[in-house]
Task: structure prediction
Amino acid sequence: MLAYTPLMLALPLAGFIILGAGGNSLPKWLVNLIGCGSVALAFILALTDFFAYGASSAPYDIVLWRWVTSGTLEIHAGLLVDKLSIIMTMVVTGVGFLIHIYSIGYMGEDPAYERFFAFMNFFITAMLLLVLADNFLFLLIGWAGVGLASFLLIGFWWRKPSAVKAAQKAFVVNVIGDFGLMIAIFLLVGKTGSLNFTDTLFARAGLFSAGDQTTTIIAFMLLIAAAAKSAQLPLHVWLPDAMEGPTPVSALIHAATMVTAGVYLVARCTAIFSAAPYALETVGIMGGASALFAATAALFQYDIKRVLAYSTMSQLGYMFMAESVGANSAAIFHLTTHAFFKALLFMSAGAVIHALHGEQDMRKMGGLRKKLPVAFWSFLIGGLALAGIPPFAGFWSKDAILGAIFTQAGATGSAWEYVLWMIGVITAILTGLYIFRLIFVVFYGSYRGAEQKSSGGRFAIHEAGLAMTDPMTALLALSIIGGFDGVPGVDTIGNYLQSAIGLSPAAQGSQLVILLFVGVLAAAGGIFIAWQLYLARPFRFTPNKNPLYQLFANAYYIDALYNAVIVQPIVQLGSGLNTLLETWTLDGGSRAIAGGVDLLSRALRKLQSGYARNYALSIVIGALLIVAFVVLNH
Amino acid sequence: MSANILAFSAVAALAIASGIGVIAFRNAIYSALSLIVNLLSLALFYLILNGMFIAAAQVLIYAGAIMVLFLFVVTMLSSDKAELQTSDRISWQRLVGVIAGIIFAAAASFLLLVHAQIAPDAAAQGSNNLFTQISAPGSGNTEAFGMALFHGFLFPFEVTSAIIVAAILGAVVLGRRSRAKSED
Amino acid sequence: MNFIYTVSNADWGHLLALAPLVVTTALTMLIDIFLPAKARSALVAVALAGVAGSGAGVYMLYQSSGNVLAFNGMITTDHLALFGSVIILVTTFLSLLIAPGYIERQGVAQQGEYYTLVQLAALGMLLLTSAASLMTIFLGIELLSLPLYILCAFSPGQTKAYESGMKYFMLSAFASGFLLYGMALTYGATGTTQLAGIQNFLANHQFTLTSGFGPYFIMGMALLIIGLSFKVSAIPFHAWTPDVYEGAPTPITAMMASGTKTAAFVVFIRLFTETFGSVTAEWQGIIWALAIITTIGGNILAATQTNVKRMLAYSGVAHAGYMLIGVAVANSLGTAGVLTYLAVYALMNTGAFGVLSALEQQIDTNVGLDDLRGLASRSPLLAAAMAIFLFALAGIPGAAGFIGKYTVFYAAAVSGHIELTIIGVLASAAGFFYYLRVIWMMYFVPPAGSSAESESLHAEIISAGGSAAAAKVSIATAAAVALPVGATIALFIAAVGVIGFGIAPAEIIQLARNAAGLP
Result:
């Protein structure tokens, strides 16, 4: 059955090609069938892979065709099925399928409906390629492909200037990440002579020796790639803006799947990172800083989706923290549960936005609990899971991470790892606070927005259709039960992944109980504060001039900083260069010389207006430099 | 030997002076005349190197035939004198160009005139070459040239015919077009 | 009198690749006389047959074995030459396919001359790839340049065309001076014009900068670099490129951009990587610096363009920079990388210019970014083709251009020049944006002349003193672009080639490695 894995990629790819080439002439039901059906079949294939692979521990390599083979270096278009990629494909196709269904309802009235599904299928293809590739070069295609898909989907509503800007921003940061990955690839091939996972990552021990300088640089380059894709400090700036895209896109790409690519990459490259202690420590610093930073920034956002965006960034920070202490399986565990409940939260946010006809400002919501019960319950369950209240999914995975960090800190006695654990606990408090602030402000109190009237004049806030609520219900169930495969002591998922990415450190005995208790207490504390602040008294928005508040609400002004330090200088330089090169030194003036003159006079004038002479001059100067080099070498 | 060097120096000075004259004269006819002197001095170089045939060809074809055509064209077009006036706007470029040229020449001379000498076996290799056979004194110069041209140098010789075809076509294309234009 | 060399029958056999084109060149001129003016576009068939015949000749030479040198060491038919020849032939073929519709639109009456000159230029390029002597290199450069000067100025009545031809002529002659001087000094230093002889001489002599033949040689080498850098348009010898490309008929630009580049790079490889291989240290630094300046500068310059043809011209400069990285690596691996890159580049670049030429059939001026607005809704297939070529040029991982870049950067990385790899990757990552901007224009911005807008545009142009015909042309931009048959075939071939290259490049990489002398 594993041999059918290529179909998993081929089906969404076929969907993309069909919908992209001839989608606008197809009836809507067929678009739905192709768009969702291809992903559904891919999910079934992922499931069969899971069962067919079983408890086996040897990676299953599928060579599709000879790709960039040169001499002894054979790089194939090849897929690698192992436990890590199986988990990833199940998450990608499973959550992806539900979000495709959801999109039928959410995007139903969009004129470019079929294009949306084409792009979504393209994204699924690229993401599957990313997690299934058996070498770095093939992975890079998926890596760049998801970036491209993200760009296209963020900018999907291209008539909105803000969406275009956000898409460009995301693309720029993504390209920085691609750059990191490419450099890592070339360094790796220079060091090891190969790019296949089997020759590098799974190869003989000692290929990457600890403290080796090149290995460290490779690890840092991979880290740049991971940080850009997973929106970690300092490359996070694109994620909040990416919320300009349609909500299903936010749910699929910017919560459940693409942003986890960085986590996947670090887990996949354990062999490299474990030989590069500095890089691994940096992973922890980056993760911890991002987790705390994003949680504080999420506290004072008023755009419902931006809260969730910062929350995503914060949760991804948890995963990187776990990876920095070698708890890869805990990170992947959190990745899966996070995919469930964050997709659910985005979907319910989408349901709210849909019901309010595009309103995203929390200040104009309130009291929606009665009118949108499905959205409310989804939000509540998703929020509880995110905050880490037992028995919901997020509780188990978050505590697996905190437990792993604490245990590892105890094992190594490293003060820094205790700090990391503290950051994790503080972030857990903040998580409960910001998500329940959101829930209380949106669903409790009284409605603060303008009256929504339909053509009949009736109050028009109503629940979304089945296409949207059904996938929400499915994810709701997963957010409740999705964490049971990682219950401490049993830890099914951790044991499953052991052969692929190693076993996570885990708390035992009484320590475990205390840690679980601390986790629950932190989450409950956060929710209690939220209850005090936003439910105990009616919510009223008051502008706050407190500098700390402003700092948080503006996400530490990092955007403004980048704009002032990087973007503006480049823009200035660009326009300056343009003026300099086009108008002055080259031949801007020659454009003004008009007229029909014959060849000779034209040529003479050209000769004399000096522009061709300028070119000759640049040749002479170049020649001079080269000869000077030769003589000075002398 | 010293006579050779003396002759070379004189001709070289002539060549450089006339070369500068070509670009420095504002009157196109003077420029063309300088060019004739320049081409003649090249012929003298060939003579110094015992290249009888090529010297003769240089005089006949370049200094003779081609330059006559040049002069025709220049005199026909010289009514349009305004076009030939050099404007002063570009003086800085000329300055930079002259300075760069001088530095370039100085650097090249430094490199080539200090230390450098022809390796003996390079010279030997050269004299085994067909070139030297052509210029071997006493042998039938023109005959040797012809034999070389149709043996070892047959291929380049044939290729030049393709280049000439291209040049003729170019003349046809551009010439016919400007005629069509004047008929409008 | 005892002569060293006598031409034999075997020598003529080495002309298999050149001969068919020579024959059809003559035929084209001959048939042109007898054809009525209206039927002259049929001449393209003769030219295409010649290119195909040359292709068959290349294949036969590839199959044959034995001595590769011919005509007293003037030309060679080794795998490097054949690989370069195939690229040039493909480029010429595509350029010829695009040409008929384009030149008809431009009102070119002298079609016979056009096709003859194109074939002569192709011959020059082929000659250059197979040149094994400084003498043939120079003749090849002249044979390819002379027809191109004229072809650049071919569009009648356009000042830009004259400007293009004239600039190319003057600057090229200037650069040829450097080249010729360099050749003379190299000959003086080594006593031979044959590359094999030069290589032999260098292998048997200790090179010193301060004495003996050293100064002559190093000076000659520097001047050779200058002359060749002009042809590949490396910065700072690039300034002619955008002006010439812009004014030349677009099919010629397409041919020039990849054909000339291929020929010049093959010479670069033959002269430097092979012939001067034993004195690598003397030239590597210069090429290294040129590669870096060209890679970075080309991308910066391209990013500031709004005219698509100029943008592609500068992007060609940037691509020359990537290829120079392969030369700077100075080993067979680098050569294989450059050759792979050239093969990819020929397809994607010719394709992109092909799309431009199709667009220019509707707009009188050059294609600006704005003219591409909403192309996807007007001509979906044309836009898709352009998107494929631009993605490939950008080198987005998975596209064909990425394969080319990978092979070059890989060579640099494993040969200890990781700094070149890093600069190359950084520059190409920055380069994504200007290609993507064009795609964005085609797909996400509505056409300029949609209904109401075109009406007012019409009125505006007429009131501005333009003729109604001109107005019609401008509005035609908003309509679908009609593609002539030849251009359709050419774009189809190029697009399929580019996609195929991205998916399964292994065979071509292997051929390039063989051409570079690697297993």
